[in-house]
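Marked as duplicate of an earlier ticket. Keeping the data here for the record.
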Amino acid sequence: MEVPVSSLRRDYSTDLEGFETTADLEDVFGIVGQPRAAAAVEFGTGIARPGFNIFAFGAPGTGKRSFLQQYLESRARGQQTPPDLCYVHNFDDPRCPRLLRLPAGRGVTFRREVERLTEDMRVAIAGAFESEEYQHRRQLIDEEFKERPERRLAEIGDRARTMGVALIRTDDGLSFAAQRGDAILGDEQFAALPEAERARIEQSIGELQDEVQQTVRQVPRWNRERRERLRTLSRDVASLAVEHPLEEVAKAHADLPDVLQFLAAVRQHATQHARDLAGGGEPALPAPLGDMLGRQPGGGEATHVYDVCVLVDNTATTGAPVIYEDNPTYDNLIGRIEYTTQLGALMTDHTLIKAGVLHRANGGYLLLDMHRLLRTPYAWDALKRALANRVVRIEPLAQVMGLASAVSLDPEPAELHVQVVLMGDPNLYYLVHTLDPDFLEHFKVAADFDDTMPATGDQPLRYARLLATLCRQEGLRPLHRSAVARVMEFSSRLVDDQRRLSARIAIVMDLLREADHWAGREGHAATQATDVERAIAAQIYRADRPREHYLEAVERRSLLLDTDGARVGQVNGLAVASYGTFAFGHPSRITARVRLGEGDLVNIEREVELSGPIHSKGVLILAGLLGARYAADYPLSLSATLVFEQSYGPIDGDSASAAELFALLSAITGVGLRQDLAVTGSINQHGDIQPIGGANEKIEGFFDVCRIRGLTGRQGVIIPAANVEHLMLRQDVIDAVAAGRFHVHAISTMDEGIALLTGLPAGEALEDGGYSPGSFNARVLDRLRALAERRREFAGPPPGEPGDAH
């Protein structure tokens, strides 16, 4: 049958009533036309059980991310804001910083309070050390320990005089010499003494030197005792000095036991390292014994151990966090430990710990792109490990791989309470689902986003409201009702279906932006249908260079195509060529040749490895149909070849199988096929014509060729009847059909196609296995029987019958 003009494209203007422009329409909330995906997301976010994370999959541009982000943000606003996370120094084990959890917004406040506390303690301790009381008590200790060596040396000196020996102090230390009265004997005078006297003095000097050595050996013990006395004094003074500023901070965080425990550790450390905090160490023992022991003034210990590292600050967060991470590397997921260089060595501490996105999304929702996640080494494993253990452990990647040689920090892990939403395409979802046994353990909820949505009932009006919402969000002009209808026609054309609209909102949004641009150029207050049409034409013009070159080759007759007359064994098939986002249809000459043979049907494209598996399947189905329909009771005794002429690239799909059948039947019967008709459709083994894809592009492609060659009023295309509801043709094609200059025929069986292409009746099947006399099918049957008889004649009589050579 010929398809009526009213069925060539759906006119959405009749579905849009009650508004002049989209400015009259209310915004639409949520996602339009995705009830299955919306229900899955609602379930996944509502069940709140481990493992019920969500994988949202669908074609690119279906609005997955925008819908998920809007839905999660609306849900998160009513939830509790998670606590701030802070790392502090672990005074018991500096390699393992402690993690503090503070109510949202108090992390930064606590850091500032500790900074002020450090300065207050420094000032208070320095003031306490400069106080008269401290200086007096310190002086008493210094004097006590200064007198000890002096008193001992004085005792040794007094005893030495009784022995006739003098204790002499020099710049080089202590020495002994013989003495008579108050005079020190020189070497000559000492040598003049009697030998017995010299021996006695030498023995006495030896004994005195031993006593001095014993005294010197006691100095380190006195030094330690002095330092301990001074440290005890410093601790006592520092403890009183830091008590008041510490109590102020502790009082502000009395509801947080972990914070109070940290402040207690700070107090203990500050009192033990009071001199370092005040900016000075303990001085050495006074000369000369201090110099003799080589003591040097000590340095101070840095006070950054008190610093608070705010890992996650939720001060500005309202409700639960919703975070999308566009670069989900290993470090960006779980955090990292940074290093600084000091004298050529890498150094780190708790203040150089940086949060990962799992920390920042903790207590809320995390959106990740699965493609990007899998492209990053070890990121997917890190995510699964965190979800399985329900903690985030910051570990350098080299340490995880067992390659770390340097000592690093091992921060206390953070408990993980996050819902992860992965996004990807369907192929990726099913691939990971099949190959990764851990996948289903962590992602139990699948949110399937369809790339189309219904265009029935109130859906067209809801779609118009969606367009109104998008225009407002983008700051675009409102759409006139006629423009809305044209956009919806464009949307249906994207999915090749009059009953459905495209859910790939990104493509529609690009069209709205371009149409708004042209509306601005024309000074329109609202975007008109002409602006939308101009935007569509501009998109096509930017991408249709290959089609232009193809049509130029048709016009110059470089491509051998007939659009008029009739040819035996030749038909115009229809194909679609895709170049990026642009696709166009074009006819291809399909030819068939037949000769006597043994039932071989040669697909030349397959023989040269240009035929895809689906196309090869279609040819094999064609061979099965031919044998079962026309040669069920005798051998199929022909050899046939099929080929796409002037085809120099791969061919796939079964949409040409009907055209190939008609060319083959024409070659068998010698009946010519109309060249002003092009054919598309696949065929099954019962002769039914099945729907194909790209019907719009194929019809328009043959129309463009006929327009160049000259429209005769007889030209047209034959498509499967099931494809009629998929038609959303260009306006110029519709105008030509309405004027009777072009035709679109829809068929359901091969017999209907035979009648159109040959002008002969296909013929009804008779009870005896034949067909009605004079019909096309009868001619096929007669020709195949003649070939079978001819083949039998060539084979000769069976063995044992007259004529047998033996």
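See parent ticket for discussion. The domain at 550-793 is CATH 3.30.230.10 (Ribosomal Protein S5; domain 2).
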